[in-house]
Every structure is written in C-alpha cells, then in structure tokens.
Amino acid sequence: MVEVRFTAMKNNGQVISGSLTEPSFSVAKKKIQKLVEKNQLKIQSIEKKVSYLYKIKKGKEKPIVGEQRAYNKEEVSNALRKLGYEVVSINRKLIEFSSKPPHQEIVSFVKISAELLDQKLPYAEILTLLINDIQNKTLKETLKQINNELKKGTDSETAFLRYQSIFGKFTAYMLGLASKSGNMSEIYKATAKFLERQQEFRKNMKSALISPLVTVFILFLAVLFYVGYIFPETAKLFVKFKIELPPMTAYTLKLSDLLMNNLLIVALFMIVPPLVFIRFAKTKKGKLLVDKYMMKLPIMGSLIHKTNIEVFCRVFYTLYSGSAESIEPIRIAAEATGNDYFESRIKNIAIPMMIKRGVGITEAFEASGVFTETAISRFHSGEETGTIKNTALQLANYYESETVFRLKNIIEMIQVFIAMIIMIVMIGLTLVSAETATISPKPPVMN
Predict the structure, then answer these.
(1) Backbone φ/ψ region at 39: left (φ over 0), alpha (ψ -120 to 50), beta
(2) Shortest CA distance to 46 belongs to which of 59, 55, 33, 37?
(3) Strands laid side by side in the 64-70 sheet
(4) Amino acid 232: pLDDT
(5) Residue 1 pLDDT
(6) For residue 23, what pLDDT is reported?
(7) What 3-state DSSP class applies to 402?
(8) What proportion of the chain, given as a percentage, has pLDDT over 70?
(9) Separation between Cα atoms, residue 9 and residue 423, nearest integer Å
(10) Rounded distance, CA 277 to CA 333, Å?
(11) What end-to-end distance do the CA atoms of the chain give, in Å?
C-alpha cells in the first residue's frame, strides 16, 4: 500500500490538504484527480511517503543510524531536531522492496492477538507490543500505519481493508470487523483457526499433488535424457558394425530416434499445454471452471469439496447472529472458501433465493448444489430446532476431522504409488542396459 499526501487550492485562495492510502501511486493520483475535478481545485503538490535513511548524533555520543518514512526530507530533519539530535545526513532510500509477509507471520500475529485479548489487554496495547516484537518489516510497518489510523479515529474495518493485499481480503475483513464487534476475542480466535487450517490444507495439498507431480516430471526428464542421448551413443556402435540388436534395445533405439527427430514437437508438447492451462486458469471464467472441476477430481475432489464446506461453516458460525441478519455472514463465508465456483453458486443462487423469494437457508443451500447431502441434512435439522449456528460449528469440526484423516491416508498412498513408478522405470532402464551389455559381435568366419 502507498500513502500519498496532496495539497490543493480552492477558487477563493484557501489551501487544503489531505492524504489517502491506495494499492499503488497511480491509483492514488487518479483518485486525487477525480477529487480535484469534482471540487474545482487546483493541485499544488502530490507527495508519496517514502523511506529515508538518517545518521544522527547527540553531543559526543556514538552516531545513530536509522530509517524513517516521511513525505519529504524536511519532515524527517525537523522531527529529529525536535528530539534534540544533530542531523549528520538524511538520504532517500534508493530501493524500496516490500514483499508480502509469510503466511506464518500473519497466523502468529492473529493467534497471539487472540490470546492477549483473552487476557483482557486493551487492543491498542496489544498492537504496540506486537509492533515492537514482529521481525518482518512489511508486517511491522503495516501494523504501525493501522495503529496510527485507529488512534486518529479511522473506522477499524476501513483501516484493515486498506491493507487486504498484506493480510488477504477475508483476514482483513475479519480483523476490521472484530474491533467493532462485542466478541473481538472470539473473532480473532476463529480467524486464527481459519488461517491455520488454510495453511495446513495447502501444505497437505502440496504433499499430495505438487511434490509427486514435480518428482514425476523430473523423472520423465531424466528418462528422456537417457533414451535420447546416453543410450543411442552405445547402441549405434552395434548398428555401425551391423550387429543384430535384441528386441528391447532395438525398440528403445527406434524410440530414441523418434524423440530426437521430433525434439521441437516434444518440447512444445511439454511446455505449451501447461502454459496455456495456467494462463486460462488465471482468467475469471477459467478460475471458475478449474474450481468447479477441482471438486470433482477422483479421490482429491471430495476432500477439496468438504474442506470448502468446512471453511464456509466455520466462518458462518463466527459471523451468524440470527436469521434476520444471515445474508452478510453467508456472503463473507462463501468468499472465505477461496473457491470461485462455490462462491458464485452461493452469491448467484442461494442469496437471491433468500432475498427475493424468502426461502429458508436449507432450501437455498440445496439449490446452490455445492453442499453435500450430509451438510444439507444437518442444516435442515438445525433450522427446524433453531440451532443453525451450532450446527455450522458441528459440521466444520466433523469435516475437519474427516479431511485431515483421509488426506494423510491419501498422501501415504500417493507416496507409495510414486515409489512404485520410480521402481518400474528404474527396472525398465536396468533391463534395457543389461540387454545391451549382453550383445556381442559374431566371431569372424575363417576361410
């Protein structure tokens, strides 16, 4: 996020100034330009808050080196002089690079905040403590800015949502909502639980899908290199001397020639489809289709589907306060799943049915087609007994237990399967090599 300050003049000569925080400097400039045109102002300056490196000293003490963000050099100089320091040098930081904090850092921040809130510490004090202890510069600076905005009276939801690029949209929304709610500690706990489950699921998915795919791809490249380059160097020696080749050796040599003669086609086949798929998956329509069919994959699809329902139910439980105010919790819970298809079905089918036709939650969820029969049955019971909030929590805990257990079994099964593939490939290469080693030229015929 970028902080920008502008100064403008009204038609009557009055000078006004303001500041705003936006994802980029260009976005901030466009908003300022619209504001200027709307109110017929004349821009005098637009300044971006940047980092300055300073060197100061006090009397005969050892010089101190530090970093400070400000709109200009004079602001830093004046602030340091007011503190009684002699300014040795102030220079703008040439390269400013701020990457998104690691997911674990954000989880730790939310989790520790929840624990301290349980101990009845004031939120302002919690922020101050964490700002001093957090090592990640991006997160530390973000929390400083949020703390300053909250002290100025900025709405907490607005303050946190400005930094959704750092926290993520759902996390920023929940943290902003927590400050305005009466159950701040509970919302922080629920957000921490959500982030931990999200992290755990991604880690398990990586173990279940990504790592095996990378292993198989590297194995394929190794086999390709052996068959296309190493093996022919030996086998063609026998061809040169017109020695008859055994079946496996002859077949492998033909395969090698086929690959080497069509190397460009093989390379394109390996590179182009994945690139096209990745490009398509990044489009709105592509992501919708990918998310839809991810839930229909053999073995893994069911786990992905149930994990989406678990996340939805956990968030819904946290935000739901009664049937009269169920639309917003349903919308936020759908967004929290991170699955565009799941979110689309809830927003475009379930919510409109509830608003326009006044149907109940169970009927609307069933019409969306993204809930399992078990989930629909439990929601139906909860709606009839007035315990739909607790039902959502029970479903979340049930699906968490099921998916964690099944995913561990699947990971073990996939690891065994990959090990078998590697073994089969290695046996095949060994047999071909052994067969080649047994080839011997025919003894010369004596006249």
Answers:
(1) alpha
(2) 33
(3) 64-70, 50-57, 86-92
(4) 76
(5) 64
(6) 66
(7) helix
(8) 91
(9) 76
(10) 28
(11) 91
Q: What are the C-alpha distances in Å from 319 to residues 78, 108, 186?
A: 47, 22, 10
**SS3 state at 87:** strand
Tokens 């403008």: give the residue.
8
| DSSP string for 231-291 | HHHHHHHHHHTTPPPPHHHHHHHHHHHHHHHTHHHHHHHHHHHHHHHHHHHTSHHHHHHHH
The size of the chain, in residues, is 447
Q: Using one digit for the tens of pLDDT, what is the confidence trace for 73-115?
A: 888 888 888 878 888 888 887 766 666 788 888 888 888 888 8
CA distance 295 to 304: 6
Answer whether 175's CB lies under 8 Å from 194's CB: no
Residue 404 CA to residue 307 CA, distance in Å, equals 9
Question: Given the structure tokens 């198989």, which residue do they identify?
Answer: 216
Residue 314 to residues 146, 189, 282, 396: CA-CA distances in angstroms? 27, 11, 27, 5
Distances (CA, A) of 207 to 97, 216, 242, 415, 426: 31, 13, 50, 9, 23
Closest CA to 371 of 401, 393, 341: 341
Q: How far out from the chain centre does Cα 374 lie?
A: 29
Is there a contact between 83 and 38 (Cβ–Cβ < 8 Å)? no
Cα separation of 296 and 424, whole Å? 29
Element (H, E) at 206: none
The amino acid at residue 36 is V
- At what angle are helices 284-294 and 263-281 packed, to 10 degrees? 90
Per-residue burial over 24-33, b if 16 or more Cβ lie within 10 Å, else e, is eeeebbeebe
Do β-strands 15-22 and 42-48 pair in parallel, antiparallel, or remain unpaired? unpaired
What separation in angstroms does the CA of 354 have from each of 8, 326, 350? 48, 9, 6
Residue 220 corresponds to which tokens in the numbers above? 């394929």
Which residues are CB-contacts of 11 (< 8 A; sequence separation ≥ 6)?
Answer: 40
The parts of the chain modelled with pLDDT lower than 50 are: none
Q: Name the DSSP class of 325.
A: G
Question: d(Cα 64, Cα 75) in Å, to the nearest integer?
Answer: 18
Residue with structure tokens 């080196």? 65
Evaluate whether 361 touches 281 at the Cβ level (below 8 Å).
no
Distance CA 365, CA 6 (A): 48
**How many whole angstroms separate alpha carbon 330 and alpha carbon 359?**
14
Per-residue confidence (pLDDT) for residue 61, from 0 to 100: 78
Helix (H) or strand (E) holding 417: helix 388-437
Q: Provide the token pair at 412.
A: 């073990």
Show the tokens assigned to 314. 């956990």
